[in-house]
Design brief:
123 residues; alpha+beta; Arc Repressor Mutant, subunit A; 2 domains; two-stranded antiparallel ribbon; 2 strands; 14% strand; elongated; BlaI_family; DNA binding; WH-like_DNA-bd_sf; transcription
Length: 123
């Protein structure tokens, strides 16, 4: 999937989606970012839908009205990975490992590496 760079507003709204653990309506976004007008939020949501960054996750209620709720189709890590050179990705991972302070996190990374190696070996 070809990923486009996000504008400042698009990125700001995507950050809200990425931080949320549930689908959000345009009203939810307005509550999280009251400095952005409702019209701007709705325009950005339409643009993010057309770019396949978010999808309609269902319907919710806002006071007495039905409203569409949206969730991200791409994670923040996937988004940023599209703009990194492979060498940079390796350097970031190596730096993260060298400075990790949690044995649990390192064990999780080790498990991910083992899973990926098994996938590649089975091909």
């Amino acid at each position: 999937m070809k990923v486009s760079h996000l504008t400042k507003r698009e990125n700001e709204i995507m950050e809200i989606f990425w931080r949320s653990n549930k689908p959000l309506s345009s009203n939810d976004i307005c509550l999280e970012a009251p400095h952005i007008s409702k019209n701007t939020v709705q325009a950005v949501i339409r643009k993010l839908l057309s770019m396949n960054f978010i999808e309609i996750a269902g319907l919710g209620y806002n006071k007495n009205a039905l409203t569409r709720e949206f969730s991200p189709c791409i994670s923040q890590a996937e988004y940023f990975d599209n703009f990194l050179v492979r060498d940079t990705s390796f350097e970031l991972a190596a730096n993260f490992i060298q400075h990790a302070t949690s044995l649990e996190v390192l064990n999780q990374m080790e498990d991910l590496i083992k899973e990926r190696k098994a996938e590649l070996e089975s091909k």
